[in-house]
Amino acid sequence: RPRRVLGVPGTQDLWVSPYRKPLEPLTNRPVCVDSRQHEAFIRSILSRPFRVPIPNYKGGLGARALGIKKTGVRRALHDPEEEGALVLYEPPNLSAHDLLKVDKEKLPVHVVVDPVLGRILRPHQREGVKFLWECVTGRRIPGSHGSIMADEMGLGKTLQCITLMWTLLRQSPDCKAEIDKALVVCPSSLVRNWSNEVGKWLEGRIQPLAIDGGSKDEIDRKLAGFMQQRGHRVPSPILIISYETFRLHADVLHRGSVGLVICDEGHRLKNSENQTYQALNRLNTPRRVLISGTPIQNDLLEYFSLVHFVSAGILGTAQEFKKRFEIPILKGRDADASPADREKGEEKLKELISVVNRCLIRRTSDILSKYLPIKVEQVICCRLTPLQSELYKLFLKQAKPVEELTTGKMSVSSLSSITSLKKLCNHPALIYEKCVEEEDGFQGALCLFPLGYSTKSVEPQLSG
């Protein structure tokens, strides 16, 4: 074997194996000629973020990063001690002895409304959010997770429901999100308004998916993508859709589950036999909220349908409800009801109200009086002009006598007469066509108008 000579140039080639082929570069990158270039080349490689070399690859962990699981005492998402904090849930106080026996990683935490929303809620809205949260989490009625928000117009029903959605999407006593997706069903004219309200109050923190048009295939694709979302980092956790679109594409929405569904203008669901009601009722969701400013229906079975949709079972079946509540209440309201029937009807009505009030909250607009300026009413009385007075007297002369009112022979109904007189008091031009056609009450009235009168010319002097 030849001896190795150290420090002599050109001796490296003596020790290269005759069977080893020279290395060939895999790219067109120039070969590093010195150590500094080589080190810079290595650093440029290591500084790049690692990417899985598979097109469109998504790992099972999603956006979660690797690392050691954090341990220790769990904390609420927002500070419950902050001034003005709206606390929806407060964990029970445990003694020092009980704390030693409980796993600190399983202790429940406070549920506090996001201060971004909590600081703008008025007192009645704070009360409403707490009521809704207790209903949909089953704390007000065990085994039931629904509620009816029946506040009158102008009390902020939309804001209260947005606060509820955002709280459920972000936190729970178990220190994780209560739901991963929410669905808002509303009339088609309110889809865009709901989307704007979510962006306004949440300040762009999430981007809702609002569907208010498009082809059938496009809508199906969007709905399927929404239903396939999983986990607590859903890009678009709120879907806003109209009743009509929901009914037409219900088969897509029935393939998965939704944590919460909110039905705006929910009095549309008073008929349990229509397709929209049945499609919504088959939706796989444990929590339902119905928004309606007019939940009181003339038919008790329609009222039962609304309550049964959000809290099935608290009033029994339709047959049980009819036997237990509807028949006694209607019998007690009958004109020929006996005192015993009236008393029983009142008792059943109070019982029905007490049961329904466990899942229904309603406040009137009177609570806004302290936020509004003093209301000043001024009543100004205007005399009729001579033309209006003559037309009015003529109408009264041609009116049927009272005797004919009792026999039902009056040709001009009371409502139409009131409408005609209201138009006359506003301006004679509004009843000019009736005078031309000599309708009931205005026969021979055309001669009272000035010569050459035309409705095309504005004559305010003819009105009082």
UniProtKB/TrEMBL annotation:
Domain of life: Eukaryota
A Pfam family that the UniProt record links to this protein: SNF2-rel_dom
MF terms in GO: ATP binding; DNA translocase activity; helicase activity
InterPro entries for the chain: Helicase_ATP-bd, P-loop_NTPase, SNF2-like_sf, SNF2_N, SNF2_RAD54_helicase_repair
Any Gene Ontology CC annotation: nucleus
Helicase ATP-binding domain residues: 138-313
The organism's taxonomic lineage, starting at the top: Eukaryota, Metazoa, Chordata, Craniata, Vertebrata
Name of the molecule in the record: Helicase ATP-binding domain-containing protein
UniProt keyword Nucleotide-binding, yes or no: yes
GO biological process: double-strand break repair via synthesis-dependent strand annealing; reciprocal meiotic recombination
Keyword terms, alphabetized: ATP-binding, Helicase, Hydrolase, Nucleotide-binding
